[in-house]
Amino acid sequence: MDHTSSLLPGPSVTLRGAVEMPRFGFGTYKVEPGVTERVVSEALEVGYRLIDTATMYGNEAEVGRALASSGLPREEVFVTTKLNNPDVEPQQVRDAFARSLDSLGLEQVDLYLIHWPMANTTDYVSRWRTVCEFLHDGRARAIGVSNFQPQHLRAIIDATTEVPAVNQVEVTPYLTQDEVRQVDAELGVVTQAWSPLARGTVLDDFVVGQVAERLDCTPAQAVLAWHLARGESLVVKSSSRERMVENAGALAVVDRMDDEAMEALTGLNRDERSGSGPDDVEFGGR
Fold first, then answer.
1. Residue segments in the chain with a per-residue pLDDT below the cut of 70
2. 52 in any annotated domain
3. Mapping DSSP to helix (H, G, I), strand (E, B) and coil, where does residue 63 land?
């Protein structure tokens, strides 16, 4: 029997502005447009209520169709999308946001993120100032950033006094991001993990397997439960309904994550990325 519906959407976190966001979300990175509507529809059927997309992914319209056909009330699904890297000038940012709303078929998104800082080649402070407009005019319930480092966060806050609700960064047992997480917490920013399974590379790790065996769960569930036990939000992707259900099973494992399990998985850190780093991306990347 599939008990997933009793687990999802799982715990939530209150963002700035009293916006409630599920901590356990479904990502659509590298989900081809041709299958996105089916995949997102299945994720919603399984019980996921945070759907994460981006202009860069090329599947916003398909995500929108899945939302429209789901029959779910709009307020029950938390939708995140992101500004594409080439859109850097203020009017480009405004036009890009309007296109995202149109593609999604929505009048408002729950969270809008700057996808990459691109600090070496662009004025990311100016982009943040423009994104703040969407919060103030009500078309975004919350705004945030992705792949920002502490110096980037401090720069945009100092310039605008507007604190991002979320900083979405790669976090895995191989890349624990302690400094970023600490600064996020100090500033009142929620850390959200992308690629929380390191694109699957951690699942074959001997230590992960040991922890999973002791906790009577799968390796993926052990790692996702580790994220949740650390207080992070996360977005995890799968095109398989069976894997969607398995991943959601992590919500039943969190209470079993004892100190031994947490220390074992955290101890795997080697500052190793599975995706691009913030200094690698100038008009490209994840």
1. 1-5, 282-286
2. yes
3. helix
